[in-house]
Amino acid sequence: MQSANQQTAAFDVVVVGAGMVGTSLSALLGNAGMRVGLIETRPAPLMPSERGADTPPTPRVSALTPVSQRLLTHLQAWPGMQADRVTPYSFMHVWDGEGSGDIHFSADEAGVAVLGHIVENDVTLAALNQQLVNHPKVTRFNGVTVEALQTGARQRYLALNDGRQLQAPLVVAADGARSLLREMAEIEVREEDMGHTSVVTTVRCEKPHGNTARQVFVDGQPLAFLPLTVKGDDHYCSIVWSVEPSRAEQLCGLSRDALGKALAAALEHRLGQVEVCDQAHGFPLIQRHARHYVLANFALVGDAAHSIHPLAGQGVNLGLMDAAVLAEEVINAWQRGAAWGDERILSRYERRRRADNTAMLALMKGFKTLFGSRHPALMLARNMGMSGVNRLAPLKRAVMHQATGERGRLPASCR
Ligand SMILES: Cc1cc2nc3c(=O)[nH]c(=O)nc-3n(C[C@H](O)[C@H](O)[C@H](O)COP(=O)(O)OP(=O)(O)OC[C@H]3O[C@@H](n4cnc5c(N)ncnc54)[C@H](O)[C@@H]3O)c2cc1C
């Protein structure tokens, strides 16, 4: 990365937020030859191997689809992630703790090598950042934030809190669900409190995880045990338990011993006893969807555009597709000498991404309603639905195809 100590700087694109989505977008644009400024408040994370030999897993993980894996491979981040710590899962088991509904998925049935990988967010971020070190086209501005966003003729201007000014024909907000840039651009957002807080921590179970991602609905509330293999030890799992906020507060306040017992009981002891290895953290869940993804010389990607219930583990996968599609449209325009910040060019990105994101947000809301309901007809429907899908091979294959990210026209970087 170049050092960025000049007072004002002009770029082709400025990306605000170096999360997984903003960093991927910056790498795609920079690798094509565009000059990118990347602004981030936090320091870049280190790989587990750089943090020390026996570093425990960090609590925030994501289930990455094979399509996201292809994008990360295209960006040359995947080999470093794989060498450090990723856990493939070849099986998924979802069941209803209150009924007989039960569904099993396997990579074999889907005709794919794996259904996905569970990866600590910091591992993905660290590997992406390694690709940007000494990158001739990407300049990272660390430890700063944006104080003002202004509009000029075919340009956006950003004032940073350390006094520096940046300008570019395109500014992209990749600054997460509570995006400051989205607010500065006055883009409205539809918000829906999901009435859930996700309790997240790392556990070690008595039995090995068997490369299976498990999710049980306990009183209609999803509890996921996501497999993690740490230095060959396949007894670790990352847990995400999405419950009512008062219950989440109670769970986070339990001793590790008591939380382990509660988790083991909720999982019906299928992995034996559960030892909690880390503090439990709570993340309130609010689904958000921006009314527009683009304005002239401005675009939203990832959680800044949409944030979604984690029950099907799709959030960052959707965001990575946003980054890949936006990069494809912008690079195409730049290569043919068109104005890449033009709203008509940017609208192509919105058209290609909005339907997929909207469908996934609606599906998560539907799942939450279906599984959260105590209505006998809905309880019967979900049990029959799950068992029915489990018996119908073509329908099951279609569900798996969707879940692995193979939806619609994929950008070239993900094929
Ligand atoms: C409990 C939980 C479990 C989840 N599990 C999964 C899963 O299994 N699979 C999946 O696909 N998704 C999952 N998600 C969703 C996933 O974590 C998000 O979709 C993803 O992190 C969004 O990435 P992003 O880069 O868009 O935003 P973020 O990860 O929020 O990154 C935004 C970045 O912008 C920076 N920033 C913010 N404001 C500013 C500013 N003003 N100036 C400069 N920088 C700024 C932040 O420091 C941060 O680095 C889960 C979410 C939760 C809460």
Automatic annotation (TrEMBL):
GO molecular function: 2-polyprenylphenol 6-hydroxylase activity; FAD binding
Residue ranges of domain FAD-binding in the record: 12-360
GO cellular component: ubiquinone biosynthesis complex
Pfam families associated with the record: FAD_binding_3
Pathway(s) the chain acts in: Cofactor biosynthesis; ubiquinone biosynthesis
InterPro entries associated with the record: FAD-bd, FAD/NAD-bd_sf, Ubi_Hdrlase_CS, UbiH/COQ6, UbiH/COQ6_monooxygenase
Keywords of this entry: FAD, Flavoprotein, Monooxygenase, Oxidoreductase, Ubiquinone
GO BP terms: ubiquinone biosynthetic process
Cofactor: FAD
Keyword Oxidoreductase: yes
Aminoacyl-tRNA synthetase recorded as keyword: no
Assembly behavior: Component of the Ubi complex metabolon, which regroups five ubiquinone biosynthesis proteins (UbiE, UbiF, UbiG, UbiH and UbiI) and two accessory factors (UbiK and the lipid-binding protein UbiJ).
Stored NCBIfam families: Ubi-OHases
PANTHER family according to UniProt: UBIQUINONE BIOSYNTHESIS MONOOXYGENASE COQ6, MITOCHONDRIAL
Family: Belongs to the UbiH/COQ6 family.
Protein name stated in the entry: UbiH/UbiF/VisC/COQ6 family ubiquinone biosynthesis hydroxylase
